Every structure is written in structure tokens, then in C-alpha cells.
């Protein structure tokens, strides 16, 4: 039963090969025709020749033509990706920062849960290397050295890490995965005489300076203008006497402490009470000013969202507050995010670093949907899928309908017309026998794989499907088709998850991926799968066909 059946071309592949070949061989000219006509690519005969020449690595080619095995292996390999621009920044990067979704981390220094895990530079480095562009640091004075600054999750048992180590890690890794700007959000709990004065020393010319006192942005610069720059975002200091500021700071800390005693969901208040007690000279370091909104102040939120001012800033709110706010202020929030930045963060009860549905933020224009990157699960997979768009640079331009000021977008509307239909055919999967032990899924027989296929997006577009399980096969052949009508394809993500069927319902994990719909290439494509924490599998892929049909 454990005998491995080798992958064979599905009937559609055989038929295509016969159509674009002559007497069992495919010439460069026919390959060129297939790539342009069927796959929808734009190749010259020279670029088709380059692909043809590269297939020699499969050791199954004829000198002047391809046979069926070579053609099949090309379609199943890394040279035939599902995304149209897997490593190329192709969107307009010259618009204000508020016009983009930003790949955003929450408590970026934590290695595990929110209560007792270790603080370290390792998760910061890992996040930056994966393309994350917004890093959050909680700043506290050291208990042992009053002149030292530490980073840890206040009010918990998390261990600290020194601020200078975090800043050096950001400096050294900020622009490895992407050249576009990195924003550091400080949750600043320092006294007025103990500020992060090391910021300018460590970052030097990389630091994008704040504006002069009394001057604020009327529009944020563009990602292109900010290339290679690091920006600080926090609550600016007040123009008042230091003693008064210090007293306000103590009041805030005392209130936060009381909240922690009342409810472990402390983070909601804590994040909105970002430090006000900064030394005056600290102002020039703050490039993006954060707005403070009192906890539970619905009237203040309404006033802020409808405020007609030239300045722009960043507002933070918890996932719970956003869910409540969109019930009555959805249009106002969309309009607010057309010029300002909105950061959404996990509620305080997510002590095990779980995450929430990011679409609640994205569909209302929120640029910074902050996630616990050290966790895993379907919502983190959706986050990773969104930022595979635009070459994985960490910035994805928002759809035009979120930027139109005249008619704010309402994601809950069910009356929008269809824009496209996404048609999918899932042919087969392969590579598990190279990634897993023979007994990883079932000790007595080969696995019974099935695949879940779903659309994540606005409520009207959400749809879930799944294949039948294929019994006792390491190379499952499904040959099943699915159809997804979409009203907002710009926000739609295709989520794919493979499971091994088990009669007790505990279906073992076999891989997953999430792909932005409008970046999909039409035609037959090889789709690599990822592990639970987002690590790409070396061998496991699905062979699929995509068709995006306009209405």
C-alpha cells in the first residue's frame, strides 16, 4: 500500500500538449505560442527560448524539442508561478503613505505569548526579513539602571530586552527584504528626563526627521520618497511645563495600573494612552504623530473622524473598538483613512498571541492592521497572503474605491454589481513524500488528502468549497472545478488549505497558501504550499488552472 505512484500529467495537460505539439514533440515556436495564447503571458521568441533551454535541467528533453514529460515538469515547477509579479514592485509608489496597506507587527519583540514569553531581537529580525514594515516597541525605564531603557510588555511577566539592541537590529535588517520605509511605533512609558535619545545616534541619516514644532504634515510623503528611511511614530510631547507633563504621565500610568488589576485585557487602554511626557527635544524625532483617543469616548471618536483639519496623523484602536465603531461610523472611518493612518491592534485577551480577521480593518481602509507575527493560524495566513502582492515589498496600494472621498465605500453592502468571476480547476498535488515521513499522516496506509478552497474578502464575496478526499495516495488527483463570483476582487484573497482526512474529524495539516486574486496569472500554474507558521515547503505544490473572467 505504501508503494509510491509517480505524478502523471492530468488529461488536460495531455490534451494541451497534443494541441501545441506535432508527433509527440513541442518546438520552441510552439512553446512560445502556448505561453502567449493559453497562459496569457507576453513572451518574445527569445524569452521562450530561455525557458526552453532551462528545461534541460529536468534531464527529460530532446535536443530541439520538448516531450510530454518535459512539458509537464515545466508546468509543475518553480518557473511557472501562480503570481504574475512574485518579486517585482509594480504598483504606483508615489502616492501619500495613507494610500497603502502596510505590513504591520504588534509587540514585535515577543517570542511567544503576551504574558510570560521572552523579549528578544530575533522576532524583530524575522519580521523584517519577511517584509514587515511596521515594528512596535514598548519603552520602559530599567528597574536596575535609571539611565537604561528596556523593551517589554508592561504589566506582565515578559522578560526585557535593551532598546539599543532592538534599534540596532532594525537598522541592520530594515532594508534587506524591501527598500521601502520602516515605521517604528513607540509605546512610550519613559519619564521626561529619560527619552530615547539613542535613536538618532543609531539610525543617523536613515532616520526621517519630524517637522519643526507647531508644524505638521498636511499629507504624508510617498513610499517612494521615503525609500531607505526609518520613521518614528508616537504621541508627541505637549507644550507645557515639564512638571505638569510628568504629573499627567503619572496619572496615565496609575490609571493603566488600575485597569490591569480590574481586567487582564489591559492592552486596549494601554495602547491608546501612549506616552505624552516626552522631552521637548524629542519632538524632532517623531515623523508621524499619534492621536490619543480616550477609552470608550464614542463622541470623541465621531468628532475626530469628522474633524476638518489640514494636519494628518495616526490613530490607534483595538479590534473590538473598530468592530463597534464600524456599526455606526463605517463611512466616516473610510473617509478618515483617505488622508490619515489608522492602526488596529489585537484585543488584550489574546494572551496566546492569536490574531483576528484582518479584513475588518482593510475593508474600512485601515493601513496598519497590527498582527502577532509569532503566532500562526488562518488569519496570519491571510495577512501573509495580502503582502505577497506588489512584489512582497510590504506596501500594497489600497483600491481606488477606498480613496474616493465623494462616495465612501461600504463593505457590508450587498447590492454591488459583480466585477469578475474567478474560475479554478484543482488538478493534483505532489511533493508530500519528499517533505514528510511515510508514516507522518497514517501509520498503516498512504494519506487521504482533500483541499479546502475559499475566498476571503468583503462579506458578499466570501465563499468556501472543498474537494473530495482521495484515498491512499501521496499524489492525489482531484480534477475538480470551483467558481467564485466577486464584487470587490481588489480585496479578495484565495485561501487554500490541504488536510489529510481522518474519520475522527481531526484532519491533519498538509499545507496552505493564500494568494491575492488580482495578482493571479491565468492558465495552468504551480502553487507552492507553506507550513503552519508560513515557512515555504521545499517540495509540496498544487497544479491548478486559473481564469479571471470579467463580467
Automatic annotation (TrEMBL):
UniProt source species: Chenopodium quinoa
Ranges for domain C2 come to 403-531
Q: CDD domains recorded for this chain?
A: C2_PLC_like
- One GO-annotated biological process of the protein: phosphatidylinositol-mediated signaling
Q: Per the record, what are the reactions this protein catalyses?
A: a 1,2-diacyl-sn-glycero-3-phospho-(1D-myo-inositol-4,5-bisphosphate) + H2O = 1D-myo-inositol 1,4,5-trisphosphate + a 1,2-diacyl-sn-glycerol + H(+)
What does this protein need as cofactor? Answer: Ca(2+)
Entry keywords, A to Z: Cell membrane, Hydrolase, Lipid degradation, Lipid metabolism, Membrane, Transducer
One GO term describing the cellular component: plasma membrane
Give any GO molecular function from the UniProt entry: phosphatidylinositol-4,5-bisphosphate phospholipase C activity
Reported EC number(s) for this entry are 3.1.4.11
**PANTHER family in the record, alphabetically?**
PHOSPHOINOSITIDE PHOSPHOLIPASE C 1, PHOSPHOINOSITIDE-SPECIFIC PHOSPHOLIPASE C FAMILY PROTEIN
**InterPro entries (UniProt xref):** C2_dom (IPR000008), C2_domain_sf (IPR035892), EF-hand-dom_pair (IPR011992), PI-PLC_fam (IPR001192), PLC-like_Pdiesterase_TIM-brl (IPR017946), PLC_EF-hand-like (IPR015359), PLipase_C_PInositol-sp_X_dom (IPR000909), PLipase_C_Pinositol-sp_Y (IPR001711)
* Annotated protein name in UniProt: Phosphoinositide phospholipase C
